[in-house]
């Protein structure tokens, strides 16, 4: 099924204008130590842990962030990135922002 704009022309997929990436959350000193400890404990026990990265959607032309959210554990980050990329390929920019815009930076 092809999405159409009100004028009748096919909508361009958001992936032509936006891209999603995982960005490491920068920590130093005690915060880095605590994060690493919690992450390892969560992975060992299977209880999960703190977010390993931020998922950021940026404009391709300017690299300006449009959406930013904590990506979660390694498994959650992978699943979130996959879902976002599928929606970028399937939806127009307007539809994508309607769906995911609540995560704006």
From TrEMBL:
Protein's name in the database: Uncharacterized protein
The organism that produces this protein has a lineage beginning with:
Bacteria, Bacillati, Actinomycetota, Actinomycetes, Micrococcales
């Amino acid at each position: 099924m092809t999405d159409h704009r009100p004028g009748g022309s096919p909508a361009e997929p958001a992936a032509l204008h936006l891209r999603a990436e995982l960005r490491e959350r920068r920590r130093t000193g005690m915060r880095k130590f605590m994060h690493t400890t919690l992450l390892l404990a969560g992975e060992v026990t299977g209880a999960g842990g703190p977010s390993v990265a931020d998922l950021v959607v940026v404009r391709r032309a300017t690299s300006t962030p449009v959406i930013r959210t904590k990506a979660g554990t390694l498994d959650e980050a992978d699943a979130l990135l996959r879902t976002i990329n599928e929606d970028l390929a399937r939806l127009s920019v307007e539809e994508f922002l309607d769906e995911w815009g609540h995560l704006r930076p």
